[in-house]
């Protein structure tokens, strides 16, 4: 045993090389010694695993380098806490960022394996619902790309978002089993385990003359174990860690119970602990108020904070330096309980006084708000919160008293304002407001588009904004151009590189150079040819999965996103029905052939959203079987929307539907993906659409409908949808057809409640915006008819969307909030 050895002096492993012959040998090496399979019996999955292990080795070299550098510099680290990471597949991402794509393809070909075949077998990691989770995944990639030392923290759900199947046009939810073949990307870190408590009681230890000390004695405990996935940035320059927590029992088996013959009871604890991280809550933009959800939130927050503090102290830092070394970003309110957990750890475990702990806490946290929808603002019944987290409940009261005292005394707030600021909602059954907690516990609160941030100041956080006017700021969302241009659209990427050179690969804003080619007839032809090939690829997918033939020369008009009334798939479907009617009535006119494509999942408990899916499928069946509109109109709902499907659909779109009720979509990121890939947007002035118009130019986007202000006014004054519907022949006929069972002859009343909702309140302004939308669609037809002008516009979209790179968003977070 050599005792005096300095570990830093140990020889480093030889960095891997990227020669295809060497890579082929490495793949066979992993197949043999890592998986224990001979090449003659290896399944395609075995080859996939072996290939991922080789790619992973290449990442590890750089991961170790990154980690050493961050430790050596004692650098400030960013911690991104998110209950969701909608990652998708990782292999292409990693190969492309490492610059290994061609070499691996060649290596595999030399041993008779096709890269595209095994890449298609990689499971799509859907540990998120939609935009919020995908944003977290884009941010992880961008933080690595711009060299910010960062950890993502979340939950390793055994079952991610459900798999969607259609049964006679109805959504059916099946469990997703992304871990069925193991997960070669991750490293289990048994040594990074923490105890997480729930319930129990708080003991007060009064030391003579000194401040009382509180000790939480939880009634239940589970273990959180870390699983690490390395996230490699563009060109492999920096690698960060995505650390996901899995719940394990303290005692896997209660031997006493087992020996006494209670074999099932002996496993109860184990099952209960593991249930904690079994499934992702499938609701998007609605708070899930169940106890298991609060348990999930506290579980991952507590594990993450214990881990963060351990790392901070292990580096030799003082607790007082926490805000200088640690920046914690809360992705929505789901991790808001972290604020109280950090207070508990600082006060009860590390013996800081309350004021010092509060100062450190609020300088460490920042919070991103994602929605203004009242039904999505999380709050927990006080009795539930108190039963599960008794010490945290005490701390909530202490913090609340401190804030309210300050608001009353120093700022002259009225009782009404105080009731809005309070951490406790007293208006009905008493509830803990997680939005207010996240706001009060953070030094920065950001919205995700300019419009959303402005509305936040006027609505949900109006009173807190008055109390802390310097805190709210905007960080408009972005998307990573690696996944959403370079990987999903290799043909367009090559064309751009051949035309303007490779600078845009490192700085998406350099796409601007394409502007000069928007009116170049030769370039337009090439741009159109790429779009055409991408559409053929999507048509092949639809033919093989659904048996429907699509004509790639028709306009591909696409709306893909979660199904939600505010996103207004219903507006699109009703307009499709009206168009169907028009084509049949006026067959002599020059109709633009269109394919209407939809995809998206509905929350299993969201009745109207599921009905909208059924309506899309019923309308599709009737239209697709009507010879009168053959070749002019097709409607397709592709099942099981996820990141991998988006990667095929986005590059194939001519028209991108971003038609939410103004004021209700915080930002959107789907809108950005499409425009970047050369689709024209038809959209409302909502979320980031507003800034997209500013960037691409108003002549290159089709904007229609009411503004957020107008929606607010109409709601306040009283909207009379019946009058609106009756004054539009097109709309009333379309609604009459839907309501009378034209598309549902087997159950004519199926959609009457959907249509009644439009007549009675039309909360989402489907009727109110219908005429403007229908007119905008005919404007789109006219644009399409002028092919040269159409492609000039779409080229300008690609050229001017570089600002929406998540690299820009992350740089802004870092400059204004994290300062890492
Ligand atoms: C980008 C993306 C979203 C978000 O789409 P929006 O149109 O912004 O709602 C949702 N799901 C998946 C799979 C995505 O890739």
Automatic annotation (TrEMBL):
Please give the superkingdom of this protein's source: Bacteria
Entry's EC annotation:
2.4.1.1
Q: Which reaction does it catalyse?
A: [(1->4)-alpha-D-glucosyl](n) + phosphate = [(1->4)-alpha-D-glucosyl](n-1) + alpha-D-glucose 1-phosphate
- What cofactors are annotated for this protein? pyridoxal 5'-phosphate
Xref: Pfam families = Phosphorylase (PF00343)
Location of N6-(pyridoxal phosphate)lysine modifications: 673
From the UniProt record, which GO molecular function terms apply? Answer: glycogen phosphorylase activity; pyridoxal phosphate binding
InterPro entries membership: Glycg_phsphrylas, Glyco_trans_35, Pyridoxal_P_attach_site
Q: Which UniProt keywords apply?
A: Allosteric enzyme, Carbohydrate metabolism, Cytoplasm, Glycosyltransferase, Pyridoxal phosphate, Transferase
Q: Which Gene3D superfamilies does the UniProt entry name for this protein?
A: Glycogen Phosphorylase B
- Indicate where this protein resides in the cell: Cytoplasm
GO cellular component, alphabetical, reads: cytoplasm
SUPFAM superfamilies (alphabetical): UDP-Glycosyltransferase/glycogen phosphorylase (SSF53756)
Give the main EC class. Answer: transferase
* Single GO BP term: glycogen catabolic process
User: Member of which family?
Assistant: Belongs to the glycogen phosphorylase family.
Q: What does this protein do?
A: Allosteric enzyme that catalyzes the rate-limiting step in glycogen catabolism, the phosphorolytic cleavage of glycogen to produce glucose-1-phosphate, and plays a central role in maintaining cellular and organismal glucose homeostasis. Phosphorylase is an important allosteric enzyme in carbohydrate metabolism. Enzymes from different sources differ in their regulatory mechanisms and in their natural substrates. However, all known phosphorylases share catalytic and structural properties.
Instruction: Report what the protein is called.
Output: Alpha-1,4 glucan phosphorylase
**Gene source species:** Ciceribacter naphthalenivorans
């Amino acid at each position: 045993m050599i005792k005096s050895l300095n570990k830093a002096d140990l020889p480093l492993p030889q960095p891997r090389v990227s020669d295809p012959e060497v890579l082929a040998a490495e793949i066979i090496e992993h197949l043999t010694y890592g998986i224990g399979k001979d090449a003659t019996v290896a399944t395609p999955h075995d080859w996939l695993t072996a290939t991922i292990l080789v790619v992973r080795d290449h990442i590890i070299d750089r991961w170790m380098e990154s980690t050493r550098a961050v430790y050596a510099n004692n650098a400030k680290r960013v911690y991104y806490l998110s209950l969701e990471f909608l990652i998708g597949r990782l292999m292409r991402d990693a190969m492309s960022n490492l610059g290994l794509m061609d070499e691996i393809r060649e290596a595999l070909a030399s041993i008779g394996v096709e890269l595209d075949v095994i890449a298609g077998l990689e499971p799509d990691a859907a540990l998120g619902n939609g935009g919020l989770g995908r944003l977290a995944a884009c941010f992880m990639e961008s933080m690595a790309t711009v060299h910010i030392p960062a950890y993502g923290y979340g939950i390793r759900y055994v079952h991610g978002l459900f798999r969607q199947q259609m049964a006679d046009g109805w959504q059916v939810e099946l469990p997703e089993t992304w871990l069925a073949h193991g997960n070669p990307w991750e490293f289990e870190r048994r040594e990074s385990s923490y105890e997480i408590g729930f319930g129990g009681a708080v003991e007060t230890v009064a030391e003579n003359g000194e401040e009382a000390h509180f000790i939480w004695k939880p009634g239940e405990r589970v273990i959180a174990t870390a699983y690490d996935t390395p996230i490699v940035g563009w060109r492999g320059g920096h690698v960060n860690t995505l650390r996901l927590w899995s719940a394990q029992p303290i005692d896997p088996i209660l031997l006493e119970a087992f020996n006494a013959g209670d074999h099932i009871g002996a496993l109860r604890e184990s099952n209960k602990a593991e249930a904690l991280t079994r499934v992702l809550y499938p609701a998007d933009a609605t708070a899930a108020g169940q106890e298991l959800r609060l348990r999930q939130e506290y579980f991952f927050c507590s594990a993450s904070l214990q881990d963060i503090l351990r790392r901070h102290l292990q580096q030799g830092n003082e607790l007082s330096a926490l805000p200088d070394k640690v920046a914690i970003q809360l992705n929505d309110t789901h991790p808001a309980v972290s604020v109280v957990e950090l207070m508990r750890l600082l006060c009860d475990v590390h013996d800081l006084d309350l004021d010092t702990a509060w100062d450190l806490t609020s300088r460490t946290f920042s919070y991103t708000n994602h929605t203004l929808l009242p039904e999505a603002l999380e709050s927990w019944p006080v009795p539930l919160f108190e039963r599960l987290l008794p010490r945290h409940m005490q701390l909530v009261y202490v913090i609340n008293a401190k804030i309210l005292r300050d608001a009353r005394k120093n700022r002259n707030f009225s009782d009404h304002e105080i009731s809005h600021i309070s951490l406790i909602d007293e208006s009905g059954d008493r509830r803990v407001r997680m939005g207010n907690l996240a706001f009060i516990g953070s030094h920065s609160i950001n919205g995700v588009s300019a419009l959303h941030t402005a509305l936040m100041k006027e609505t949900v956080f109006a009173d807190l904004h008055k109390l802390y006017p310097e805190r709210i700021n905007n960080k408009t969302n972005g998307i990573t151009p690696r996944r959403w241009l370079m990987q999903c659209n290799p043909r367009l990427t090559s064309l751009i590189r051949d035309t303007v050179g490779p600078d845009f690969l490192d700085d998406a804003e350099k796409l601007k150079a394409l502007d000069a080619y928007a009116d170049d007839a030769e370039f337009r032809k090439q741009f159109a040819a790429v779009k055409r090939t991408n559409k053929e690829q999507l048509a092949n997918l639809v033919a093989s999965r659904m048996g429907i033939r699509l004509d790639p020369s028709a306009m591909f008009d696409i709306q893909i996103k979660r199904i939600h009334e505010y996103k207004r798939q219903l507006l699109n479907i009703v307009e499709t029905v009206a168009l169907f009617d028009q084509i049949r009535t006026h067959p002599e006119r020059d109709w633009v052939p269109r394919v209407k494509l939809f995809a998206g999942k509905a929350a299993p408990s969201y009745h109207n959203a599921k009905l909208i899916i059924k309506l899309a499928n019923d309308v599709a069946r009737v239209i697709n079987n009507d010879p009168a509109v053959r070749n002019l109109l097709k409607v397709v709902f592709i099942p099981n929307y996820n990141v991998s499907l988006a990667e095929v659909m986005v590059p194939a779109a001519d028209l991108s539907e971003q038609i939410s009720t103004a004021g209700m979509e915080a930002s959107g990121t789907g809108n950005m993906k499409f425009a970047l890939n050369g689709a024209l947007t038809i959209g409302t002035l909502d979320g980031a659409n507003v800034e997209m118009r500013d960037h691409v130019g108003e002549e290159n986007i089709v904007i229609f409908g009411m503004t957020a202000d107008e929606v607010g006014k109409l709601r306040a004054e009283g909207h009379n949808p019946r009058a609106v519907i009756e004054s539009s022949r097109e709309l009333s006929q379309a609604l009459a057809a839907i309501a009378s069972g034209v598309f549902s002859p087997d159950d004519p009343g199926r959609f009457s409640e959907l249509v009644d909702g439009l007549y009675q309140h039309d909360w989402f302004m489907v009727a109110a915006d219908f005429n403007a939308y229908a007119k905008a669609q005919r404007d789109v037809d006219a644009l399409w008819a002028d092919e040269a002008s159409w492609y000039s516009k779409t080229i300008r979209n690609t050229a001017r969307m570089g600002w929406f790179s998540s690299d820009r968003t992350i740089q802004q977070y870092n400059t204004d909030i994290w300062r890492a």
